[in-house]
Amino acid sequence: MQKLIKIGHIQIGKNKVTKNFLGTLDSLFKNHESIHVRVLKNARADGQEGRDEVRKYAAEILSHLGNHYTANIIGFMIKVKKWRKPVRA
Known about the structure:
Elements: E1 5-12, H1 19-28, E2 32-39, H2 47-65, E3 69-74, E4 77-82
Parallel strand pairs: 1-2
Antiparallel strand pairs: 2-4, 3-4
């Protein structure tokens, strides 16, 4: 059995969340059990609007990945974790 690397990193930039970004995220989860997604300044607004955009990105990522994944938002970073069993309804 292949040993998974703990944490991988990826960034959301000016193109926001695209099909290419989601494909890259899928391929990262083949070798990592957790991914830190950093939302860069050019992908969000300032203040509360920017935090709302980060929540929207997290929801979009989770809807693409499925029920075996959870996300925590810390500042402008989304931590996405993969679980063995479904953890979301």
